[in-house]
Design brief:
Layout (H helix, E strand, L loop, with lengths): L2 H8 L1 H12 L2 H17 L7 H34 L1 H24 L2 H11 L4 H8 L3 H20 L1
């Protein structure tokens, strides 16, 4: 294994956890991780430094995830349009209502938690967030965990 592959494999665990966090499905997370790892090996010359590798891989993973969602939504919308066009509209309205609930719930969080959570959702690494917020890495992880737990609590009420 060459040095690039060793560095890449060092990101395997955190990337899988990130993939599982966005997909909430073990198989989809594995597929997503596989695609990103293959892409990284293919374009290894584009990685400028080891420090930016993790962030670049997460950004690539997020873009791949959005592509995956688009493909699924196109397939689903086509199948719904064929079966019953009215159901598709109701599903979009339900999804928009859920998104509004999540956004409203984020606004109910303490400002520091909400700010840290937004940066994490944007794809920033915990170390990037820590330097921007002038806090320790453990505090970043604590804020994200507390924010997620509080969001679950608010949304389940």
């Amino acid at each position: 294994m060459d040095p690039f592959e060793q560095k890449l494999m060092g990101h395997y665990g955190p990337l899988f956890r990130y993939a599982w966090g966005v997909t909430r499905n073990h198989h989809d997370a594995e597929d997503l991780l596989h695609e990103v790892m293959c892409e990284a090996l293919k374009y290894r010359a584009d990685f400028a430094s080891e420090e930016s590798m993790g962030a670049s891989l997460r950004i690539s993973m997020r873009h791949r995830f959005y592509d995956m969602l688009r493909k699924r939504s196109i397939r689903i919308s086509l199948s719904h349009k064929i079966q019953d066009p009215g159901k598709h509209i109701e599903a979009n309205q339900a999804l928009a209502a859920e998104l509004n609930q999540v956004l409203f719930a984020i606004e109910m969080l303490p400002q520091a938690w909400a700010r840290t959570l937004r940066k994490a959702v944007e794809g920033k690494s915990p170390s990037e967030i820590a330097s921007e917020e002038n806090i320790g890495l453990s505090e970043v992880h604590r804020r994200i965990a507390k924010a997620r737990n509080k969001l679950r609590q608010i949304l389940n009420e």
